[in-house]
Amino acid sequence: MINDIRWCNVGNKVFKATVRSVLIGYLIVLLVIPIGSIYLKGFSLGWDPFWKEVTGPLAWKSILLTIKLSVVSTIIQAIVGTIIAYVLVRYTFRGKSILNSMVDLPFSLPTSVAGLMFLTLLGPSSPLGVWLDHLGIKLLYNQTAIVIGLVFVTFPFVIRTVQPLLEQIDPAEEQASFTLGAGRFYTFCRIVFPAIFPGIIAGSMLAFSRSLAEFGAISLISGNLPGKTMVASVYIYGETQNFNPEGAAAISLVLLTLSVLILWIINVLTRGKGRLA
């Protein structure tokens, strides 16, 4: 009996060690090696060529444009996503289950298909595009188009991180606030908002990080004008087509570093806050 227990303990230790090794190997192959290769390629020619590539007029403008429009789309998502999450959790209405399931559509839809969808919907030959053109409104091949594309592809992030936190709030707390004479806005600010704030921050940062890397939809609807509507991901693609892998790696390194910093900040801010998604 004692020997059987010992063998079981040994077997458990071997199993845990095997699983741990497989997971570490998996992370090394799929994350550490590819990320490390980008850093090695970006600095392969030294610091001066790297800095020259990053601070080149078109490269720098593409980076700044990407960050600026990513911030704009993230602010929109933080506001609209929080409202939608609140409605989905707190209200019951016809078609709610359909709307809730469609929130994840941007996750399953290829981004190039999303770009083609906007081209079809807002293009000059579509009824909506013709009507908007008569009003003097142009939603394609400009920075507005980029924001629209980014908002679409990052749509679920804030909603899906805020929803679980809203579901954890005891409705009795809100009812008590109403009983004491507080209005809906005051109750939301004092009871609901503090509880969902970590989710808003985490979802917004994930949306921002995703916006930095978007390519498929943006490449179709932005016009890709250098210095005006060319985002960093499109610039990177252009550099690879122009046989400049070092330049592409340098800009990729900037975006990669920003994404890693964002994920680290999310981990720090949400540590101890519980599971957000």
Throw out a few tags for this protein:
mainly alpha; 277 residues; globular; 14 helices; 0% strand
Note down, in words, how this protein is organized.
By secondary structure, the chain is mainly α. It is built from 14 helices and no strands. Helix 2 crosses helix 14, helix 9 (155-168) runs antiparallel to helix 11 and helix 13 runs antiparallel to helix 14. The model has no long low-confidence stretch (mean pLDDT 83).
Strands, helices and their partners?
Elements: H1 2-42, H2 47-54, H3 57-90, H4 96-102, H5 105-108, H6 111-122, H7 127-134, H8 143-153, H9 155-168, H10 171-179, H11 184-213, H12 216-221, H13 232-241, H14 245-270
Helix pairs in contact: 1-14, 2-14, 3-8, 3-9, 3-11, 9-11, 10-11, 11-14, 13-14
Largest sheet: none
- Average pLDDT, rounded to a whole number, is 83
Distance between the termini: 45 Å
Rg (C-alpha, Å): 24 Å
What's the shape? globular
Total number of β-strand segments? Answer: 0
- Structural class, by secondary structure, is mainly alpha
Percentage of helical residues? over 70%
How many H/I helices? 14
Residue windows where pLDDT falls under 50 for at least 5 positions: none
Written as H for each helix and E for each strand, in order along the chain, the element string is HHHHHHHHHHHHHH
Keywords: Membrane, Sulfate transport, Transmembrane, Transmembrane helix, Transport
Protein name: Sulfate transport system permease protein CysT
Family: Belongs to the binding-protein-dependent transport system permease family. CysTW subfamily.
Membrane topology: Multi-pass membrane protein
